[in-house]
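Subject — a protein and its fold
Encoding — discrete vocabulary of local shapes:
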Amino acid sequence: MLTVVNEDGTTPSDSSLLDEIVREGAQRLLATALEAEVNAYIAELADEIDDEGRRLVVRNGYHQPRKVTTAAGAVDVKAPRVNDKRLDDATGERKRFSSAILPPWCRRSPKISEVLPLLYLHGLSSDDFVPALEQFLGSAAGLSSATVTRLTQQWQTDHAAFMDRDIAEVDYVYVWADGIHLNVRLEEAKACVLVLIGVRADGSKELVALKDGYRESGELWADLLRDCARRGMRAPVLAVGDGALGFWKALAEVFPETREQRCWVHKTANALDSMPKSAQPGAKKAIQDIYNAEDRDHAAAAIKTFAQLYGAKFPKAVKKITDDQKQLLAFYNFPAEHWIHLRTTNPIESTISTVRLRTKVTHGAGSRIAALAMVFKLVESAQARWRAVNAPHLVALVRAGARFERGCLVERPEAAAA
């Protein structure tokens, strides 16, 4: 049949000829595959006959036509039907043929099912699925917002299973902790989701725990850490977080042997907020000289310089640095390759920024439960892109208690080793 094509490559129906060819090819291949599947099923059971010698499994025409949304677009499907007269010995009911290629309930391919939650997580409202995808896929079949509603219920189940898993076999040497404050459209108070990310002994990063509440209180953090300990978590060697006192109070209660490292990004922002804008550029450079120093001694000297330069005029800003000097310089006791990971909460902040972007687009989650499920799935999907820490082989040495000076491993003297 001759098809008229416009100069821009479209057909009179305003669809692309290329898309039509792909869709038609997919439709023919699917029909062929379904026929082959049914023929193989009938041939395998050809010996099944009744008392009169008639086959128990035969063809029985076709099912009603339906549209199935696939990655190639919407295709028309007319699946062959099977008349299976055999009885199930256990239930006494008739056996039924079910296609492994196209189940009776299927209206979209698994790939389309994966696209829907991905679009939802990255900011597309569930009400926008049909107008956004209908033109691209050629059909609105299986794209209703109710699909995402069912998915969020599954995400809640997944999160509950995640928070109940046994972590006794996993060793988290470093952890980052932070809270995400989210707007909830149907509630006045914001939701607060506590996130804990850890570094395993092999250097890879992994989501450890995720819990919701109303604020970053010490008791809420303590509940999360106690739950981790109950499920077998060992005390991390180092914990990295911002200045939220609730986490540090809870850490001292549950894992008192874990060392503390304050985030330099948060500390820098807090110190600069105590200064006029005219002084902030120079002060920021002086603070960067502290945490970029080649070792702890040079960093301590840089803190003294910062105090001399700004202590008289801006004592509050200087006090924010000097009061937490020990916790701010804790990362210098670890391998130099790990310093870039340990001196800030950037590994967790980069993931949280994705969550904030999604909630900004949708003006917050509809409920606290939906917010928690959404954050869990966002962090879980981001986890696949996290890279291991530099020099991952050194993480196991940190757990073993190896000593590092100026970022380098200190070998034990032979006499002591003997």
